[in-house]
Write the structure tokens for this entry.
Amino acid sequence: MYIKKLIGEKCYLSPIDINDAEKYAMWLNDQEIADFLTLSTAVIPVDGEREILQKMSKDHNYAIVDLKTNTLLGNVGLIDINHIHGSAEIGIFIGDKSYWNKGYGKEALSLLIDYSYKKLNLHNILLRTYDFNVRAIACYEKIGFKRIGEIRQGIQRNLEFHNIILMDILPSDFYKK
Ligand SMILES: CC(C)(COP(=O)(O)OP(=O)(O)OC[C@H]1O[C@@H](n2cnc3c(N)ncnc32)[C@H](O)[C@@H]1OP(=O)(O)O)[C@@H](O)C(=O)NCCC(=O)NCCS
């Protein structure tokens, strides 16, 4: 069951429903999706995913749900929240590939970032992505994220080394847009 916690024009963010474990496991075992994620090398059985979702659902991790059809599309969440410094790291994946490139990523991230600034009193939100993930980088830049550096040859994927791109966003970058 989904609850409309943060509502946009295309999608809304809901607390995670752990009964979606099978769907998440299907997506995360799909190598086309997993190639973009840190957990591409992890083993993800349905039972294990249920336990992970159970833990994640208690923190600021949300299901991205299509507003019109109430279809689950993926997940967006914060890790390493530090309330002393107002910092956190954000991560996202849209598992339903038919929804890629339609503005859902931008909107889901924007909903969580706005909430992070206004309700959680966060200030610096960091993310990491891979240099070959051009769609993700374009999406993040459109929201206002700035490239702040890269970890050179920080990952090996498909027989090649790739750089890990670091990007961050402050309220002044986000609300300027
Ligand atoms: C990355 C992801 C979250 C982006 O969400 P999305 O809904 O697909 O992206 P959006 O449509 O909001 O924004 C993508 C933007 O990049 C642009 N873009 C896409 N491919 C591009 C390319 N090859 N070069 C330049 N720009 C590109 C799109 O045109 C779009 O901009 P626009 O809305 O101005 O046209 C989503 O595709 C996804 O989950 N992918 C798989 C997992 C993943 O990569 N997660 C992120 C790990 S760091």
